[in-house]
Amino acid sequence: MDLLTLRHASTSMMQRRAWCSYAVHLTEVAWINQEQMKKDRADGLRDTVLDLHWFFHVQLARMAGTFPAWEGIRLVRERSA
Q: What's the confidence (pLDDT) of residue 79?
């Protein structure tokens, strides 16, 4: 479904959302597969997949406007009195 959404996206913002949704789906599948395998040597990979999964969730929330950008520098103009 995510790839079909990407194919029919008409704006660049819709394409970015579709790519993030697809990445969330892929990382979720990778996480489930890693959990089922339960290999100790894959601990680093599982952590990386989980980090990526949450990164893409945050990106989707920021695109939707439900999660503010908090890691940047905020520039504010001073008003002359």
A: 73
